[in-house]
Amino acid sequence: MTMKKSLVIILMLLLMPNMPTYGQQDSIGIQHTKSYVDTDFHVSKVYYKGTDTQVPEENFYKLIEENPNLFLERVIDNAGNITRYLYDPNRKGGVTDTFLDSYHKGDFPNFKLQTITNETIELSNLKGKLVILRFEMEATTFRFKKHEIQELDDKINALDHKDVVKAILIFNDSESNVKKGFDREDSNFALVADGRNFIEKYAISRFPSTLVIDQNGNLIGTFRDVDEIDLEAYLKNE
What we know:
GO terms for molecular function: antioxidant activity; oxidoreductase activity. The protein is α/β, with parallel strands linked by helices.
C-alpha cells in the first residue's frame, strides 16, 4: 500500500506551547491533552505560510514521509471553521507570541458563535455591551468550575442594568454533555458547545479562563480569578 493511500492524519490539539493547567492556584496543575481525527483536513488546504502558494500534493506527502509529526498551523475564521493549514519551512519550534498578546490594546477580532439553543452571537453586533467570554473544558467533570459561574452571575445580577452585559460560556465538550452538565437555572450565560477551534484560535491555555471585552470591542484582560473582575468599574470607565 502506498504512503498516499494509507495516510491518516491525526492532528493534536495544540492549545499553547505549555500544557493546560486547571484549578484556581498557579501551583495546581494537571497535564491534559486531547487527540482527534481532523475531519476538515484536505491536502488542497495546505499552503506555505506567509504566501498565497499552495503546497503541491506530491511535496506534501514527501514532507510527511520525512517528518510524520509535521506541524501545520491552522487558520480559523470568525465562525470557528478551519480555512487553511499553513506549513512554515523555517519553523524551528519554540514558543511564539500568543494570539491574545496582540489584542490587549486594540480592537478584538470579530467572532460568530452558535449556541446550543441555535442563537447566533456576533461580536460586531454587541457594540455598547460589555462581553464576557468564559472558556471551560468539560461540562460534566470536576474541571467545570460551577461556583465561579455563580459568582459571575451574581456580579451581573448586581448591576443596575444587567442587559448591558453579554455573557458567553464556551465548552470544549459536546452539546449533549453541556446540556447534561450545566444545570444552573436562570443563568445569564449563553452556552456554546464544541468550542475547540475557538479555544485554539484565542490560544487559551488554562481552564477555566475568562476574557472581558469592553463596550467598544477592546480586550480589557484575561482573568484566571473571577474575583479580579469588576464589572461596575469597567462600565463606569466607558
